[in-house]
Amino acid sequence: MNNTNLAAARDLIQVVTGEWKSRCVYAATRLGLADLIESGVDTDEALAAAVGSDAERIHRLMRLLVGFEIFQGDARGGYTNTPTSQLLREAPGSFRDMVLFYGEEFHAAWTHAYEALLGGTPGFELAFGESFYAYLRRCPDAGRRFLLAMKASNLAFHQIPGLLDFRERCFVDVGGGSGELTKVILEAEPSARGVMLDREGSLAVARDNLAGLLAGERVSLVGGDMLREVPANGDFYLLSRIIGDLDEATSLVLLGNCRQAMAEDGRVVVIERTISASEPSPMSVLWDVHLFMACDGRHRTTEEVVGLLGRGGFAVERIVDLPMETRMIVAARA
């Protein structure tokens, strides 16, 4: 085997063994190793005793995770957290809920990738015998964990208040989930008012997240179905990571509801991961296939989103790049 083939073989092996690394990160997260290390429990023996395992097995796990720079340190000097492992702790801004949900429900969905891609039924439905959102409605704890996972991964939200003028304006956060976008906007602009719409069974997490703002009557939570109607007279209708779950016809129903409900000079604001038509990034197309595996969704190209908005009766005014292959697309009535 020549050097070119050796390099190709190494690249392929790293790809096909990538799941092993993610499973180790999941295991470390479920064991709570980052929190234990932060508290000073930092040796193989101490970690093993704390989680009810064996020092050698913990050593082998930690050696791997140190090798991938998730943690740092060694068996003799003890382990410390890195900026990456800090994200696995039970702390504000943590990715712990996301890692656990991805490592459990979404992992189960992806084990059916072959059958899903062959037959067209999402992997989640093959794994659980029902659609993703039916599962979340049936299992409230799973629904709560999913909303917390989504909250962790919304890395673009902090930029939104600086990109839109929310002064003395009312916005409607459609399908707002955990309420994190609503919270970020209201904390950044004291004169803004917010309405967050989601299914009644999904509002508990938002109610906890927005407790202080609810007490001040700056925000109201509305239980309902966005495909039936949305709250009226908003200046901005925020659709954050919504249309990726919806097909064309359903997206147009939602856009029609927003168009009918919004104030005369209102805007619809789509915040969504999009795919570059000319140079799609690896992460964006990975998220696209993941949406299919989870709920038969898809990520559109920016041009496809613009076209969708046009067919929904809107004219795009601005497109702004955000972190993590996300774009904010602002549109007014055409």
Automatic annotation (TrEMBL):
Q: Which InterPro entries match?
A: COMT-like (IPR016461), COMT_C (IPR001077), COMT_dimerisation (IPR012967), SAM-dependent_MTases_sf (IPR029063), WH-like_DNA-bd_sf (IPR036388), WH_DNA-bd_sf (IPR036390)
Which UniProt key words apply to this protein?
Methyltransferase, S-adenosyl-L-methionine, Transferase
Signal peptide annotation:
none
All residue ranges annotated as the O-methyltransferase C-terminal domain in the record: 110-314
The name this protein goes by in its record: Phenazine-specific methyltransferase
Looking at the record, the residues that make up the O-methyltransferase dimerisation domain are 15-88
What superkingdom does the record give?
Bacteria
Q: Which GO terms describe its biological process?
A: methylation
What SUPFAM superfamilies does this protein map onto? S-adenosyl-L-methionine-dependent methyltransferases (SSF53335), Winged helix' DNA-binding domain (SSF46785)
Q: Which GO terms describe its molecular function?
A: O-methyltransferase activity; protein dimerization activity
Recorded hits in Gene3D superfamilies, A to Z, give: Vaccinia Virus protein VP39, Winged helix-like DNA-binding domain superfamily/Winged helix DNA-binding domain
